[in-house]
Design goal:
GO terms for molecular function: cyclic-nucleotide phosphodiesterase activity; metal ion binding. By secondary structure, the protein is α/β, with parallel strands linked by helices. It has helices at residues 24-36, 57-67, 84-90, 131-143, 163-166, 173-181, and strands at residues 2-6, 44-48, 74-77, 105-107, 113-116, 149-152, 186-191, 198-202, 205-209, 215-217, 229-231, 235-240, 248-252. It binds fe (ii) ion (2 copies).
Length: 266
Amino acid sequence: MLIAQITDTHVRRKGDLLHHMIHTGRELRRAVEAINALPVPPAFVVATGDLVDRGKNKEYRRLRRLLDELDAPCYLVPGNHDDADGLRAAFFDHPYLPPRGPICYVVEMRPVRMIALDTTRGRKPGGELDAARLSWLDARLREAPSVPTLIAMHHPPFDIGIGPVDAHAFRGRDELAAVIAAHPQVVRLISGHIHRACEVPFGGTIASSAPSTAHQLIIDRGESGGLTMRVEPPSFALHQWTGRALPTTIVRTADPGAAPALRVVS
Ligand SMILES: [Fe+2]
Ligand SMILES: [Fe+2]
């Protein structure tokens, strides 16, 4: 079973470039094409937040048109750039989206079950899981203790060593780790938000973040006091269930005109 993860798509209206230079919609289109061309089709795609850039309805309508090109079903998780009402309106026919409250839900897929968590607190940059969401998660995990489970959310529950990023600490991080540690069927916790692939041991499992489909964070000392971003080829993550674990691969989509894959017979 293959699960594709896209994140931090930051879609804007057509022609409205991020920082006057980044074609986020075009980069998402390239990622969608790359996912559709995978030799093994994913069971589903999960988009882990910052789906659009300004939370505008027009951005959600464009996001919808771009994601409708995916061959696989797609599940949406909100990030701090999202607007829950705008998201629900554009994806009104996605039945897993709860009609109100935090956008938390379960995808009862097998062999890997997925639990999506809404870690937003309005449009503030930092993530949070309060007591209500943590107790909801604990209850869902108790329902299927022997089914390998993937948890998907926007904010990673770990620091990355860059001051301006880590300043927005994840509220409820230790409590989340305690819930995860009590449920060893959790095979991985995936996230986005930091626009860079990272992996950290967490609550007895692995917490990871995936790169953006558009622009990536530069790992520096944060001396500027801000963040340094760079346009790199659109990337996404593939999580493949082996029957024992869920290893993750980061895929950087080839530049147009790049050489095709070679098949080497040994
Ligand atoms: Fe983002
Ligand atoms: Fe974010």
